[in-house]
Structure formats: C-alpha cells, structure tokens
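Bump. Still looking for SusD family protein structure tokens.
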Amino acid sequence: MKIRIYILIFLAGVFFSCGEDFLDRTPISNTTADSYYKTADDMTNAVNAVYSKLASSAQYGSNFLQLMEYRSDNIKNNNPGAGGGVLYQCETFTDVPSNSTLSATWSSLYEAVYAANIVIGRIDGVTFKDETLKKRLLGEAYFLRALTYFNLVRLWGKVPLVLREVSVDESKSIKRSAVSEVYTAIESDLNIAIENLPSGYASNSVDLGRASAIAAKALLSKVYLYEKKYTPARILLSEITEASAKDGTPLLLTAVKDVFSASNEMNKEIIFAIRYLKGNSGTDHANWYTSGDSDTDLSVITALYTSADKRKDLMVLQGSGTNKCPSKLYEAPTGNRQGTDFPVLRYADVLLMMAEVLNEESYTADGLAFTYLNAIHTRAGLTAYSSADLADQSAFRQAVWNERRLELALECDRWFDLVRSGQAITAMSTVGYTIQEYQYIYPVPQKQIDIVGSDILDQNDLYN
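Sorry for the wait, here they are.
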C-alpha cells in the first residue's frame, strides 16, 4: 500500500501562509502553533507536510523538470508561449528575475524548509510513546531539509540559510550565505539523518517511500561528489554497495524497464522517490514531458541511444493526442493525470557515482571502477568496456558522464552534471545556445528581493 505522505497536507494549509516564502509569510499565531504541535501525530503530520511540498507542482511535480532538465542539452521546449513564456525563458537562457516559475519554486522550497524546522525545533517538546518513531521523524526532517537546500544551492548558489524557526521580523534580516556554508549545513543535516533513520523499510510497510539511512548516505555521497570530496564519497558509497541483504538494501534490477514500471514502484533499485497516487486530487500530477504538441522535443536525447541500447525504449512516447509521455515516466492517465513516482535517488546512480569517484582518486586499467560502470552499461544491452576502450582517466571520466546522461535521462540530473563537470558551455553550444558562466545558476526572484530589499537579498551577478 502506498504511503499516504502525499495526501497529508493539513499542516501546510492551516499553519503555512500562501505567501511567497518565509520572507513574506503571514504571521503565525504563536498560541495556535504552540497548541497544535503537542502529539506524536502532530509531528508526523508536520513531516508529511514537507513531503507534500516536494511533491507539489512548484517542485518535483512540474517546475523542477523545467529548471533542471529542459535547461540541459537533453530535451527542448519549443513552445515560446507555454506558461506565458516563463518556461521558454528557462529553456533559452533568457530568464529574468520576474520569472514566476522561479518565484514559485523558491517559495515552495522555503516552505519546505520552514516545515522541517518546525519538526526539528519542536519535537523534543513532544511526548512520544514510541521513541523509535520520534527518532525516525527527526531523521526525516533533517533529510528533507538537506535535500531542499541541495536543490536551492544548485539552482541559485548563495541562498538564505535558515536552520531554525524564525519570526517574520527575523526573516527580513537574513542574508544569503556562501555556497560553502550551505554545503556544510547540508552535510551536517545528512549525517544526523543517517544516525536517526532506519536502514530501510519492508516492501509491504505503510512507511515504504519515507527517507531511509541508505537514502541519506546516497544523497550525502552525491553532495560530496559535487564538492569533489571523492574519498568521503567513496567510503559512504561502499557502505551502500556492501550492505547485507535486509529491508531497504538496494540492488540493480535485471531489466531496466522494470525500474520504471508503474506496477513496480518503490522496487529495490529505487532508493528515494517522490510519491504520487493517481485518482486523488492533490496526490497525482500532470503528464510529465508531454510530447504530443510543440512543448517537448525529445529528439536530441533519443538520437543518442544505439539500436542495441535497451534504454532507448524508455524514450518512446506513450498515450495519444496531446498527452503523450515518455514510457520511462508513463502511466495510463485518468483525466490527463498520472500517479507515477519521480525517482530522486536510485541504485544505478550509486554505482555510477562509485565508478566516478574511484576513477577520480586513481585510474586503474580494468579495475573496480570498470566493474561499476559496466554493471550499468551491460544491463542496457551494450558490450562491456575494457581498458582497450578507455585507456586513461580522461577517457573513463567521459564514459561515466555519457553513461549518466543515458541512464539518468529525464531524472533532473543532466544540467547539474554539466555544470559540475565544467561542460555546460560547450554542451549547450552543440544544441544552439551560447551561454556564460553566470547562467549556471538562476536569477534570484525579484518578488523576494522586493520584500526585504536588495541590501538583504542581493541579486546574482549579471542578472538585471
């Protein structure tokens, strides 16, 4: 049974302002808040509210696809009128501070931070009969806050770092923190999450889909990879790959198509996903990467798969009319709405990260890094690499990046991989866009700057 974390949004509606973010939130009555967060159920609902924010259209439900995947060289949005033109801005690198998609996403991310901070700050004041539950909820809050800040820092660079509940007046004086400080906070949150979360959940558990210690380790490994901290990343990744068989232990499925089957969600390869449920208003989502009209052009990424590559079929459009969707993320819709989960972390990504960090530490001809890379490459039906194909560190590095592009296509990794690997300018030029380094991150939403003033919330360089 799917965990119902995605439908428990009561707290978000009652205690969270409809304002743009923590900077312009309607004041919350301390008496009301203090009277609510009293029981274990209250804390559970508070954690569920964070999951709901991640699942919203402002994040994984829609906007992240625009900001993270369309931005890359994988796919194109060919409709300049979509969303009043704001989506096309993200595609063509013409985004401006007034872009409403950016503002909505910024707001939603900080609402998630706010919800997590409530749990972290108040949970010790609540009496729990089940201390294991208390520990898990705390770990979930730290994990979700870390994931939220990881998305914030990758999208905007410097961002306000808010690690506790703050008043409206306090929020108006919080300046952006350096990128390094944000990453330090993310690392700290994930280490706490690892200490508090269970390793995983049984396949029949009602909690399947919640954050686990393995998910926290996988996310922290990715954070280390972005920071080029290869040895700490390798140590954590090794803990995942060498874990003994038990609840939550991930594995690579034999057939890549089975990873994305709508009837096989939360399978052993999925480490963490954003969960949805078709047929319930507010728990489903619109078709992702709708390709029946001019909005989405998948021709670039589709052309990269050879005929032997089994992942090519995942790019094939399903559905009819203007509601076609790549089979990788497709479920027969009801009223043009789907319930497919969105994969955030999966075991294939772990193996590719392991191949990358081992190579960055030291290239070894036909060494262990080849084993991890080939696990993904051969599952796709392709011939295994050897040192005859990848003769040095540079060649192996490029092979890993290419494998990531094909394996993780449409999963919101490609743009960030281009940026962290220094390939973004060259890659985008091949699909017709001339960009500059300042466009690696987005402009801070002007709506947020107007609330507190540019002396508190400054704009990213070269954005007007």
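Confidence is low (pLDDT under 50) at residues 1-31.

Edit: fixed formatting.
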